[in-house]
Amino acid sequence: MNDLNAISIRNLLFFISVFDAQSFSIVARREEVSASMVSRSVQQLEDALGQQLFYRNTRAVIPTEAGRIFADYARAMAEQLSEAQKELQDKTLQPAGVVRVNAPVFFGQKHIAPWLAELSNRYPKLQIELSLTDDFIYPHREAADLIFRIGALADSSFHARVIGTQTYYLAASPDYINKHGEPKTPADLPQHQALVYRGSSGPNRWLFKEKHDGEKQASWVHSPVKAVLTSNNADSLFTAALTGMGLVLFPDWLIGDSLKQGKLVLLLPDYEAAIKTEPQCIAAIYPHVRHPPLNVRVLIDYFIEVYGSPLYWQLE
Amino acid sequence: MNDLNAISIRNLLFFISVFDAQSFSIVARREEVSASMVSRSVQQLEDALGQQLFYRNTRAVIPTEAGRIFADYARAMAEQLSEAQKELQDKTLQPAGVVRVNAPVFFGQKHIAPWLAELSNRYPKLQIELSLTDDFIYPHREAADLIFRIGALADSSFHARVIGTQTYYLAASPDYINKHGEPKTPADLPQHQALVYRGSSGPNRWLFKEKHDGEKQASWVHSPVKAVLTSNNADSLFTAALTGMGLVLFPDWLIGDSLKQGKLVLLLPDYEAAIKTEPQCIAAIYPHVRHPPLNVRVLIDYFIEVYGSPLYWQLE
DNA sequence: GTGCTTGGTTGCGAAAAACGCTATAATTCA
DNA sequence: TGAATTATAGCGTTTTTCGCAACCAAGCAC
Question: With contact defined as beta carbons under 8 Å apart, do B236 and B230 qualify?
Answer without folding.
Answer: no
